[in-house]
Amino acid sequence: MSVAQFDRLFIGGEWVAPHAAGRIASIDPSTEHVWAEVAAADAADVEDAVSAARAAMAGPWGRTAPTERGATIARFADLIRRDAARLAEIESRDNGKPLRDTLGEVQRAADWLTFFAGAADKVNGEQIPYRPDALAYTRLEPVGVVAAILPWNSPISLASWKLGPGLAAGNAMILKPAEQTPASMLALAALVEEAGFPAGVVNVLPGDGMVGAALSAHPGVAKVSFTGSHETAIRIMRSASANLKRCSFECGGKSPFIVFADADFDKALSVATHSAFRSTGQSCSMASRIFVERPLYERFAAGLAERAQRIRPGLPFDPKTHIGPQTSAEQRDKTEGYIALGLEGGARLLAGGGRPEGLPNGYFVQPTVFADADNRSPLAQEEIFGPVTAVMPFDGEEEAIALANDTRYGLVGGLWTRDVSRAHRVAARIESGLVSVNTFRPVHFMLPYGGYKMSGIGRENGFDAMREYMETKTVVVDLSDAIPPDPFA
């Protein structure tokens, strides 16, 4: 099989050779073979990209009216829809997700961009009744150059979460894809060029962690938007402190999925299965801690294990595949390490725990269900990012809330009950940025999304996301002709 070559970076509206000769090998996680080689940026390329982005802000993009910005973003979204099949194939080769999933993600990315295209001219400042003889108002202005550092689990989807509000607010963007999945952002850059964005508005710099570190520390970058581990976010924040640049982070979770005894059992079980194992568990908002009220506990745990055993791991381009491999050998090994910790810690293994049969190559792990885990154990406290969930019993509302909040994360939470009063009581007390009742993780471009505690800072999606990419400027105009008294007379 030939190896695809992506030998140029996208900087300043042009396809340029990197300053150094480095390359990144993208490994197809379903075969463990290199399928693409991608040019790697270095510090000199970071300088070029920041200069190009700043020039775009000072030039045509900075003078573009919001409605016109929105029209360009809308063209970009339409091009993504047109090329969705090709983009999804690249994404599947990069990160191993089934084509069905990546195609859906690419199409939703276009929807995200369409929403923000329409939002570009609908976020306004306000007039403030400061004094009768003065006009006071606020202007919302772009922060400047934004570095968007992307994860490997859903690159195109999460790029749209950052590009949409960032571009709609009038910023210039530098995309830094994860080292494991470098190719899809360059394919996306070709559509940026075709959409007609001015040169330098969107730049793409594949590379290792050095590129992200250089962007985080660069004085010409006004904001960093990052999705990934909280450990990396802490390093970014330290680097960003040099010029007090803005930061927004989405840093993972250990999401509680609470099932009360009066819940719709079949619906809760079906959603729990999907929420625990979709994307091979490689999502920040998995149902990775499932708390079930004791009268339903054994039945629910057994039902989840039976459903997990029906999930078909397989190759990304096989239409029968339910979930693909882990994206890297490192991530597979990490997941298997947590399975071993669960067994050592006395949790009861109900399903999975190993590698699937019939798949000799690839970074595959069976969907795995543990019961009777200790909520303070690594299995229940640390983000695994693999197809592993832990089911634990609780007795009563107060214990459910205490268990749910007993974590350093707070991204997503959910509860299942037919009691309307309980639904609102518990939702108010769960320490998560998104709480769902009788569903789980309803992510949508209109709904703000972000975390409490170590799950992050700031919000993505909705009009709240636009504010993350804008500065508020207050303007006061004195309308009076009166000469104020001289305090030094």
UniProtKB/TrEMBL annotation:
SUPFAM superfamilies: ALDH-like. Gene3D superfamilies: Aldehyde Dehydrogenase, Chain A, domain 1, Aldehyde Dehydrogenase, Chain A, domain 2. InterPro entries: Ald_DH/histidinol_DH, Ald_DH_C, Ald_DH_CS_GLU, Ald_DH_N, Aldehyde_DH_dom. Pfam families: Aldedh. It comes from the Bacteria. The active site is at E250. GO terms for molecular function: betaine-aldehyde dehydrogenase (NAD+) activity. Signal peptide: none annotated. PROSITE patterns: ALDEHYDE_DEHYDR_GLU. Keywords: Oxidoreductase. Transmembrane segments: none annotated. Its EC number is 1.2.1.8. Residues 15-475 form the Aldehyde dehydrogenase domain. Belongs to the aldehyde dehydrogenase family. This is Betaine-aldehyde dehydrogenase. It comes from Sphingobium chlorophenolicum L-1.
